[in-house]
Amino acid sequence: MGWKAAMVGGKLAGVGGEKLRCAAAPAAAARSRMKLWMVRATTTVLLWTCVVQLTAVGDTWGPRVLKGWPSCITSPDDDAASATLAAARPEPVVDKAVLPPKRIYRNNGYLMVSCNGGLNQMRAAICDMVVIARYLNVTLVVPELDKTSFWNDPSEFQDIFDVEHFITSLRDEVRILRELPPRVKRRVEHGMYHSMPPISWSDISYYHNQILPLIRKYKVLHLNRTDARLANNGLPMEIQKLRCRVNYASLRFTSQIEELGKRVIRILRQNGPFLVLHLRYEMDMLAFSGCTQGCSNEEADDLTRMRYAYPWWKEKIINSELKRKDGLCPLTPEETALVLRALDIDRSMQIYIAAGEIYGGKRRMSTLTSAYPNVVRKETLLEPSDLMFFQNHSSQMAALDYLVSLESDIFVPTYDGNMAKVVEGHRRYMGFKKTILLDRKLIVELVDQYNNSSLRWDEFSLMLKAAHANRMGSASKRTVILDRPKEEDYFYANPQECLQDSNLLHTS
Length: 508
Known about the structure:
- By secondary structure, this protein is an alpha/beta fold.
- It folds into two domains: 108-248; 253-503, no CATH class.
- The chain has helices at residues 2-56, 62-65, 76-88, 119-135, 157-160, 163-169, 182-189, 204-218, 237-250, 255-270, 283-289, 297-309, 320-325, 333-342, 361-371, 378-381, 394-407, 418-429, 440-451, 457-468; strands spanning 110-113, 139-141, 176-177, 194-196, 220-223, 274-278, 350-353, 375-376, 410-413.
- A five-stranded parallel beta sheet has the order 3-2-1-5-4, covered by helices on one side.
- Helix 4 packs across helix 9, helix 17 packs parallel to helix 18 (418-429) and helix 19 runs antiparallel to helix 20 (457-468).
- The longest helix is centred in the first third of the chain and has 55 residues, at 2-56.
- The chain starts with a helix and ends in a 40-residue tail after the last helix.
- The relative contact order is 0.09.
């Protein structure tokens, strides 16, 4: 029985072996098919990767390779027809911005800045901060704009200026980042940085000797006030030139602001020449300056209360009449109407008001609108829907007025604030476009004499014309007053180092 059992066992084993071999064969075939599928999938992925890469570089050598391939879904006849159409239709010419080469330098640290004031005060400050960053070899973070001033404008830098153009157009001078790198940002979040206001009207040596050591020590420096922090005069020519480059080439408004500004200018141009009147007679300016000429007692009290409500407006007790006599008040709408008439501004001239809401409204504007019926504003030239996204954004509204002011036939500011000065300098840079720089001290004296009949109209007009013959924005040298930089001519009002006719400068 033993041998039978052995034979039966051998047969069973043979049968089992055959079954195992039969089961193993499909498994091996499945593995082979899987390998083949993986090879095919990998090959497909690699081929598509190559196609994508070739398409990406198609502008360089693609026309010779990719564009020569026949289409898989078009017939030869279709190809011939397409070629004929392509030959008949010229290819569009696309202007590509030529970027300057990146400037390579050893980075000494990071500079963060918080600008203060209105649009044009911040604009000049941004130019100064770029210069400072460049000459300290530090990385500048896109400036933070003031959101706590009287206007409470929540606009960010990129809401007003073309931030990409700002960064790339200056890359050969200074590295500018939208925000700090993550590692450095974490340091700042933990308070590992230094914050301070720099000294006003300083030359570049102050920043090399006092500010640079702080940046090297802390790696991140935050300048929390930026107005008038760089001197007007006594700076190297390359610094002055860079200030101009930033102001006139790199600080470009957003496309939305630019397009709307162009539309306002087109509307004005359709109706002939126009004068931009920067009538600085808004409530905030009157409260700040303490000027109440022509206001009622109730209005004067409102302005005084407003002045006391803002602690950073240091001057509180103000003699309005004395300040006006010294030429330190903005001209009133009534005074402005007399001046424009005396200077022979044509009655039919369009007068574009570049300003906010005039204090006193239609009542205070009545004399001006009677003398010049074509008084307009952006709000009267555009539809409400056009300005919908600009409402409650005073800096963006001011940017529109800035663009229109640059293109006007005549620009007349009634007060020498930041917008008046920066626009004046920009118009000089554009070819000394006519800007009437009013002598307010003389004007109020002559206006008072005319109003009390001490001067006849022809005398009044003749004296005003004579006084302003050389105050039209022509080439002149900046006035330098040693140790009194606030009283000397402002660099951005007359950037003489950057002007075409600098060799023809004369002292005004």
